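[job 0417] fold request received: Winged helix DNA-binding domain-containing protein
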Amino acid sequence: MHQRVRLAILTVLSETQECKFSTLRDELKLTDGNLNRHLRVLEQASLLQVVKGYEGRRPTTWLRLTRQGRAALRAEIAALEQLVSRVRDASTAHLNNDTDAP
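[job 0417] inference complete; emitting structure tokens
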């Protein structure tokens, strides 16, 4: 997962059992086409499942995070936490070095 939008999609889907396409689109402020492109990539990677059906007479698309999607999200979060930790450690080291300078 290299894109923030895809990380955001997985994050939103992790918060619920399933989410309507329109809800996800509105929450992430994406166009239909942009969201569709990201969803295709994530679906091809087996990170989410797309379920099409009807709500009354209206065609509706629901999205669900797969087990692989949950695992990928956890791994991505762990990697990001390590990066943040490195930045914080480096910032602290630089601050300490700056105060030691004459």
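[job 0417] notes: The chain has one domain: 4-96. The chain has a mean pLDDT of 92.
[job 0417] exit 0
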